[in-house]
Design a protein that fits this description.
Belongs to the DapB family. Its main location: cytoplasm. With 266 residues, this protein is α/β, with parallel strands linked by helices. It has two domains: 147 residues, Rossmann fold (3-Layer(aba) Sandwich); 107 residues, Dihydrodipicolinate Reductase, domain 2 (2-Layer Sandwich). It is 33% helix and 23% strand. It is built from eight helices and twelve strands. The strands form two sheets. It has a seven-stranded parallel sheet, with helices on both faces. It has a five-stranded mixed sheet with strand order 8-9-7-10-11. Helix 1 packs across helix 7. The longest helix has 17 residues. The chain is elongated.
């Protein structure tokens, strides 16, 4: 049995993961971690699912749970993730990180912590999205230098970071395939630019509204044709499915920084 520690257990993703872990024959709940000040601290984690007791108390202290966990799954906020990783890395326990909105500095710090433990970090745990990354790489190698590239994404009205981590990763995949520096060619706002589209740019457009789980489209547009590669998430539980899949894969892996594409051998 693999003991899973869920960080952010009261969030939408955390609850989905909790359901999957408790239903799986090869997994068991090792820790249920929530934010400071939660009224549920000290309660049995089963209360979150209105189910029978799971014999795991909800806590806000990651460090106190390391002896009970084989793999952590973290879906929180960037500042929380960067605090949580410290005791996890010190205890050399693998962790799957699905938190979005991590800064360049955060990612660089995770790479350092990956020298101590196995870290799988991905802004999107969907297996389909990670297949799309592979398709984008091929498209960019063939069309990238001759096409205008735009990334369009839409999410529910409650999402805080923009563009989404998935949209940014799509842009980075394309830029890397073209041997370009992503930070130099990404354009997030054309307001008041008053000029034609620059050659080689990767433009981003962000939409927010309603209950959209997550739609992403990358457009390769030339003067004679247009290719669009699209992924539409229909159910948030698919991200939980991917996170649990990743946790199984990461268990007992050596220290290092991994991605979902590693789990698919892409």
């Amino acid at each position: 049995m693999i003991r899973i520690g869920i960080i952010g257990v009261e969030g939408r993703m955390g609850l989905n993961i909790l359901q999957l872990v408790t239903a799986a024959e090869d997994l068991t709940l090792g820790a249920a971690i929530t934010h400071h000040g939660s009224p549920n601290i000290g309660q049995d984690a089963g209360s979150l699912l209105h189910s029978e007791p799971l014999n795991v108390r909800i806590t806000d202290d990651v460090a106190s749970t390391t002896k009970d966990v084989d793999v952590y799954i973290d879906f929180t906020l960037p500042e929380a993730t960067m605090i949580n990783i410290q005791p996890i890395a010190n205890a050399h326990i693998p962790v799957v990180i699905g938190t979005t909105g991590l800064s360049t500095e955060d990612l660089a710090q995770l790479a350092i912590y990956a020298k101590e433990t196995a870290i799988l970090q991905a802004p999107n745990m969907s297996l389909g999205v990670n297949l799309v990354y592979a398709l984008l790489e091929q498209a960019a190698k063939v069309l990238g230098k001759q096409a205008d590239i735009e990334v369009l994404e839409m999410h529910h009205r409650f999402k805080k970071d923009a563009p989404s981590g998935t949209a940014l990763q799509m842009g980075k995949v394309v830029a890397h395939a073209m041997n370009e520096d992503f930070d130099k060619i990404a354009v997030y706002d054309r307001h008041d630019m008053n000029r034609e589209r620059g050659a080689g740019e990767i433009g981003f457009a962000t939409l927010r509204g309603g209950s959209v789980v997550g739609d992403h489209t990358v457009i390769f547009a030339t003067l004679k044709e247009q290719i669009e590669i699209t992924h539409k998430a229909k159910d948030r539980s698919l991200f939980a499915d991917g996170a649990v899949y990743a946790a199984r894969w990461l268990h007992q892996k050596p220290h290092g920084l991994y991605s979902m594409q590693d789990t698919l051998a892409l």
